[in-house]
Predict the structure.
Amino acid sequence: QLQLVESGGGLVQPGGSLRLSCRASGSTLEDNAIGWFRQAPGKEREAISCVSREGWSTVYLDSVEGRFTISRDGSKSTVYLQMNNLKPEDTAVYFCARRPISLCSPRGYDYWGRGTQVTVSS
């Protein structure tokens, strides 16, 4: 069965960078769109960005536009979220998830990772 595992989170100062990874085991991600989401304490989960099977990316969160970049590797079993110029308001648990089809959307994900904590603080 497919499992998604996020890594790369941690504590970073404002203005710093992190690269999150989402790795699949039990199956590949080559036919699927993959999304990144986040949830801050006391807030609803929000969609950040998605990358399609073909590698086309879509950003859903205006506040990260120009700072966060989603990508996938050639084997298509790992998806990344490069986060630059991090701000305290980016503090959240970050999740990756798989859509059952190749096209992106902020909804319709069937497999989720457990998340990785990102804390932006001085």
About this structure: The chain has no helices and eleven strands. The radius of gyration is 13 Å. The first strand starts at residue 3 and ends at 7.
